[in-house]
């Protein structure tokens, strides 16, 4: 029943990140606003576009991390927002549609890397991915940002294989870092593995009041933001938005 619309998947040998520069690049300053959102492939719907426009107007994020982001005919919604550059890494290609991770910023990407899981999810047979981007800060330091969508519906050893890929990034150096995305931590074991990884590399978990981003019926949140070398000024869940099955997460960081 799935054969007619099984998507092609991007394997490790086809790792390509589409890059676009912001019209005017600026270094990240003393305050960095992050928007993280699994958009559930809805980012071309009119209601979603209205929600996104309001988020941009109200919060003016410096960094935007999307999971399950869709392009059409190799064009991105973000192309209309010239103040943002981005890196886009797909894990699903189907006809003229590409789906994957986006890391957007008003700052130029100075380094990029990407990782595709060695394993695939059942039924649609597609891998999950990690996108690593690096930016310059006005302080003279660099900020590494790791955008993640973790593999789901598989045995724990395949989840651990992707955790090992993330560990490869975390052990590179001790520069300021944000690790954010949809980690599919829907049970205690997955959650414990992720927390242990972050603790080992000095990353702190951003606490969101009320846990409004927790998806029913799961006992643990799926979406997380971890950080090091920064301080959290404010964290919030935009609970009123319903154009995705995940809630947008907003975090204001200050540099140390």
Structure description:
The N terminus is likely disordered. The radius of gyration is 17 Å and the shape is globular. With 256 residues, the protein is α+β, with helices and mostly antiparallel strands. 39% of the residues are buried. It is built from three helices and 14 strands. A hairpin with a 5-residue loop joins strand 8 and strand 9. Helices cover 16% and strands 36% of the residues. The strands form two sheets. Strands 1, 2, 3, 4, 5, 6, 13 and 14 form an eight-stranded mixed β-sheet that branches. The chain has a single domain, classed as Endonuclease/exonuclease/phosphatase (Deoxyribonuclease I, Chain A, 4-Layer Sandwich), CATH 3.60.10. Helix 2 packs parallel to helix 3.
Q: Into how many domains do the coordinates divide?
A: 1
What Rg do the Cα atoms give? 17 Å
**CATH fold title:** Deoxyribonuclease I, Chain A
Number of helices: 3
What spatial form do the alpha-carbon principal axes imply? globular
CATH architecture: 4-Layer Sandwich
| Sheet with most strands | 8 strands, mixed
Mean pLDDT metric: 91
Strand content bin = 35-45%
Helix content: 10-25%
Structural class: alpha+beta
Measured between the Cα atoms of the first and last residue, the distance is 54 Å
Low-confidence stretches: 1-5
The string of secondary-structure elements, in order, is: EEEHEEEEEEHEHEEEE
Instruction: Tally the beta strands.
Output: 14
What is the top-level CATH class?
A: Alpha Beta
Chain oligomer state: single chain
The CATH homologous superfamily: Endonuclease/exonuclease/phosphatase
């Amino acid at each position: 029943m799935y054969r007619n619309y099984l998507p092609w998947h991007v394997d490790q040998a086809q790792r390509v990140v589409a890059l676009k520069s912001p019209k005017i690049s600026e270094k990240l300053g003393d305050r960095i606003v992050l928007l993280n959102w699994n958009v559930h492939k809805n980012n071309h719907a009119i209601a979603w576009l209205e929600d996104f426009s309001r988020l941009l107007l109200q919060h003016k994020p410096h960094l935007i991390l999307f999971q399950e982001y869709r392009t059409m005919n190799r064009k991105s919604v973000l192309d209309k927002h010239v103040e943002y550059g981005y890196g886009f890494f797909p894990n699903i290609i189907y006809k003229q549609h590409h789906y994957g991770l986006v890391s957007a910023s008003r700052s130029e990407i100075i380094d990029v890397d990407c990782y595709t899981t060695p394993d695939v999810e059942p039924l649609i047979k597609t891998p999950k991915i990690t996108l690593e981007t690096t930016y310059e800060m006005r302080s003279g330091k660099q900020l590494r940002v790791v955008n993640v969508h973790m593999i789901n519906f598989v045995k724990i050893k395949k989840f651990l294989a992707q955790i090992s890929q993330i560990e490869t990034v975390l052990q590179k150096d001790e520069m300021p870092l944000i690790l954010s995305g949809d980690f599919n931590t829907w049970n205690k074991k997955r959650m414990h593995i992720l927390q242990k990884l972050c603790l080992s590399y000095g990353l702190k978990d951003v606490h969101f009041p009320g846990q409004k981003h927790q998806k029913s019926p799961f006992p643990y949140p799926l979406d997380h933001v971890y950080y090091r070398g920064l301080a959290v000024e404010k964290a919030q869940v935009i609970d009123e938005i319903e154009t995705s099955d995940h809630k947008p997460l907003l975090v204001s960081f200050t540099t140390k």
